[in-house]
Amino acid sequence: MLPNRMMLSRQTEEQLKKLKGYTGITPNVAARLAFFRSVESGFLYSPDQDSKKLDGFLVLDKITWLGETFQTTELVLKMLYPHIPQKDMIKAWAAHVEDGIASLRNHRNLIDFSKNI
């Protein structure tokens, strides 16, 4: 369902990299946490209001981005967006990561980060 090669927007990528600098959590793991945090918060992606480009430099394969959560992530996306075109699923995933990282990006150390999760 999701393509084998995936990327995020540059802005989201920068936030993930800053979070790594503060907490040591790698961008792919932080992206997984951000995705599920966004889903739990009730955020919904709207293709009509999407103006973000997926122009990041960190292009990773699906398994690296999603790890052991790849099947769950794809099922959640399919459940939330049953009628969205296949090519837009990557944009939905990226929008959820961007939404979820907003609440995680300001933690300055791993202890604060883990308390917030």
Describe this structure in words.
- With 117 residues, the chain is mainly α.
- It has a single domain (5-116), classed as Arc Repressor Mutant.
- It contains six helices and two strands; from the N terminus they run βααβαααα.
- A two-stranded antiparallel sheet has the order 1-2.
- The termini are far apart.
- 27% of the residues are buried.
- The model has no long low-confidence stretch (mean pLDDT 89).
H/E element order: EHHEHHHH
How many distinct domains?
A: 1
Q: What Rg, in angstroms, do the CA atoms define?
A: 13 Å
- Give unreliable regions as ranges: none
Query: Judging from the principal axes of the Cα atoms, what is the shape?
Result: globular
Q: Kindly name the structural category.
A: mainly alpha
Kindly provide the name of the CATH class: Mainly Alpha
**How many β strands by DSSP?**
2
Q: Judging by the overall fold, what is the CATH architecture?
A: Orthogonal Bundle
Report how far the terminal alpha carbons are from each other: 28 Å
| Mean model confidence by pLDDT | 89
Name some characteristics of this structure:
6 helices; 56% helix; globular
A few lines on this structure:
The protein is mainly α and 117 residues long. It has helices at 10-23, 27-41, 62-66, 70-80, 89-102, 110-116; strands at residues 5-6, 60-61.
Q: What's the arrangement of secondary structure elements?
A:
Elements: E1 5-6, H1 10-23, H2 27-41, E2 60-61, H3 62-66, H4 70-80, H5 89-102, H6 110-116
Antiparallel strand pairs: 1-2
